[in-house]
Request: fold
Amino acid sequence: HLKHISLLIFSWLVARILVSFIFDFSESYTGGDSVYYFEVARNILATGMHITDDGALFVRAPLYSFFVASVLFIKDSQLLFFVIQSLLFLIVPVSIYLYLIKFNIKAAFLCAFLICICPFDALYNGRVLVETLVTVFLCTGSIMFLSKRWLLSGILLGAAALTRDIYLLLPFLFLFIALFTKINKKSLLIFLT
Reply:
């Protein structure tokens, strides 16, 4: 499997390199929702609080703001955001591959390969938007649920809810599904913790 994973990482890297030639890293990357995340992240670094510039509590889920603050603490650089978010996103195709090889190794590689070379994901990784991080949590959390790794699944899906509040009820959807399958109660309690 190491050969396939190496090819996936190579294709992922080539896609990011090609996108980096197209993507203008000198252009402002603080448009749209990223303006809010930068504002709150800078306030987290300055005051330690999840607030806007006018001192009001920021009502969006906090995890992505703290992630942005962590990157800004290192350096305020669009290239750095692109690299870090791309590295985080690499978890998705590798996780999908590792899960699907149990069923069909060729299909597993094809699915993961298509995700690795997708230019849209690569472009998205260059923007400061919550979807990159929440996708990692949702995909890996779902894979852990299917793999019956209840605690890890619960943690990852909980992190997705803390990243984007629209997913607050998502663990309960998984719980609902689990009620109609052959999952014992102890496993469900571990998932919910």
Summary: The mean pLDDT is 88. The first helix runs from residue 2 to 22. The chain is about 70% helix and 0% strand.
